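User: Metallophosphoesterase family protein. Structure?
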Amino acid sequence: MLIAVITDLHANREALEACLAHAEERKVTRYAFLGDLVGYGADPGWVLDKVMEYVRQGAWALIGNHDAGLLQNERQGMNPTARNVVEWTRAQLNAGQLDFIAKLPYRIEWQDILFVHANAWAPENWEYIDGVMEATRSMHATKASITFCGHVHMPTLFHISLTGKTGEFVPTPEEGIPLSKQRRWLVIPGSAGQPRDGNPAACYATFDTESQVLTYYRVPYDAETACQKIISAGLPAVLGHRLLHGN
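Assistant: Predicted structure:
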């Protein structure tokens, strides 16, 4: 089975369309969407409908912190920009879409794989994996050999050796990485809808369950259109401009 792992879509229709088309060309057989389906972007309804369509066909989907924010009546902890985006996004969605979000899980386990949005130790608290220390904590919090994780918008790969030493590296796109059974792994594909590593191309990854090969991808998309749609919707212009630079 070839699984495409796509996370942090952030209501970016253009990026999601590009990633899905790219994945279909590689004959992906199953999809996992790791949360933050909405937030920041101008097409929350379209993105949710597309994810719901894939879920009906057998895809996995998780809730992210931006998705969960739509379900909360009190938003005092948010800064004015974030509160604005949440309120605008909620107004674009129908009851069925909000109900879909409300039923999304925090984690999904399948065979020897764990899918989470934020981390394995407390996925509902939305704490970030900012480096080796948090990655080690997350890998120790699960029995799964491979954890796929979103929330962090920069592609990264962590692993723990048999001696307990944790390693970290930034993967090269399109170079297959065999995930040895002698190690445990934490895979952060990066954000499809809002990359933040200085590269505006959308991020996602595939994992072949037979060969145990992981491959990261960068997919160029029409970021100019996505940017202009954000500005036209009356959302903060900075949310559109950052798409052009990947920051």
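The mean pLDDT is 95. The chain is about 30% helix and 20% strand.
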